[in-house]
Design brief:
The structure is a homodimer of 250-residue chains. Chain A is of the alpha+beta class and 250 residues long. Chain A has 2 domains: 96 residues, Pseudouridine synthase I, catalytic domain, N-terminal subdomain (Alpha-Beta Plaits, 2-Layer Sandwich); 137 residues, Pseudouridine synthase I, catalytic domain, C-terminal subdomain (Alpha-Beta Plaits, 2-Layer Sandwich), CATH 3.30.70.660. The first copy, chain A, has 5 helices and 10 strands; from the N terminus they run E-H-E-E-H-E-E-E-H-E-E-E-H-H-E. In chain A, strands 1, 2, 3, 4, 5, 6, 7, 8, 9 and 10 form a 10-stranded mixed sheet that branches. In chain A, helix 3 crosses helix 4. The radius of gyration of chain A is 19 Å and the shape is globular.
Chain lengths: 250, 250
């Protein structure tokens, strides 16, 4: 009997060339498909479909994917069965059985990402792959919060979209954009109904420039209105970014 | 003018074959000596002396070493000058000028280590090199604390010393041995005037066996009295161990 499975996975993006399969590169998708294909006796390649891709060095704590299985492994042992064969930089957190028409990408209702800056003067060697170092610079978070208000809501976010994209409709809705201090680390948590290519990293890079006084918060209004990538700030580095939650309709 | 410098360093032990120089291996000591030697114009190898060695995959947040320098770099820029040349898995936290007879090993007054177990059911991929997984097992910490009472004080700690050691006097004093929960992670923090080879990892491994009911806490009294390594538990894995502080007389 064929069952459709929804898997929630976490991965340390450090040693991956991103999520999506690419020739001659180590990718998250390929590692998972390899394990599933072996589990299914190599009859055919078991393909997995994720909520979307993540770039090289970007992490995930709650990426979601779906695949079809013919195995009779009980649901409560499925995650463990995958984890014993997967490399330790990918962990399956949860496996659920879903309706046969569930689609991890088409059904996405929203996503939440986290971006982390490490503001220690001497960066901890333990955080070098997991946060973006600021070399001791502490930004003005109140200004970053003011700037964030111009990003909330529904806009054409062309200003925050990498130029090399084929997506035509760039209207998205950002429903929440918050900042939290965790010790010396600043977290930006952003939720929306969908994100364009590099959108979170460009928002992080632009708000960072506000935080260090290179731009003022009110400029964000013009940047968003410009519908032009060149008006926004630099793309923040990948290692600070985490795909945290993917939302689906109940 | 020759100055003696005391450096406090942190390192991620994951990609090192330990602290101490070994032929054809990547070690912390060699990386630091390479950078110092280049900074000193390659006139001769600048040797560094640490408080003691750490094994492969063991971490440090407060290892201490000394070396002599003829460079006129101001004290407040010395750490930065080293950090720009060091690999990112070693960071110099602090450099101080000390008396010419300061010795990072001979003058050690005491040390503090931390051992971390990750008790999550599915281990976070982000903690795989930084904590020892328990596969969801949560130990009885109250029993571990009772057992720890038999370790406190001055004893011949042969029971907690790796067999392959050349040290003759195995009497040491453990001044504190505490447990703390940090979320799903259990930390053991141990302080003493000195530690034998693998002593912290054997204590961690033995107390862990108490925590999971494989031994009872009162057995620790006999283990310590036995002066015999074979009575104690397994050596806990290296990636959970951190050298945290080295103490010197004021």
């Amino acid at each position: 009997m064929k069952r459709r499975m929804k898997a929630t996975i976490a991965y340390d993006g450090t040693n991956f060339s991103g999520y999506q399969v690419q020739p001659n590169q180590r990718t998250v998708q390929e590692e998972i498909e390899k394990v599933l294909t072996v589990m299914h006796k190599n009859e055919k390649i078991v393909q997995v479909t994720a909520s979307g891709r993540t770039d090289a060095r970007v992490h995930a704590t709650g990426q979601v994917l779906h695949f079809d299985t013919t195995l009779s492994i009980p649901l409560d042992r499925y995650a463990h069965a995958l984890n014993v064969q997967l490399p330790s930089d990918i962990r399956v957190v949860k496996v659920e059985e879903v309706a046969s028409d569930f689609h991890a990408r088409y059904n996405v209702h929203g996503k939440r990402y986290r971006y982390i800056w490490s503001c220690e003067k001497v960066q901890s060697p333990f955080r070098r792959f997991y946060a973006t170092p600021t070399n001791g610079v502490t930004p003005d978070v109140e200004e970053m919060k003011k700037a964030a208000q111009y990003i909330l809501g529904t806009h054409d976010f062309s200003c925050f979209c990498a130029a090399n994209t084929s997506v035509v409709d760039k209207v998205r809705t950002v429903t929440a954009l918050e900042f939290e201090w965790h010790g010396n680390e600043l977290h930006m948590i952003i939720t929306g109904n969908g994100f364009l290519y590099n959108m979170v990293r460009i928002i992080a890079g632009t708000l960072w420039e506000v935080g260090i006084g290179k731009r003022n918060s009110a400029q964000l209004k013009d940047i968003v209105a410009s519908i032009n990538r060149t008006t926004a700030g630099k793309t923040a580095p990948p290692q600070g970014l985490y795909l945290e939650t993917v939302y689906y309709p109940e």
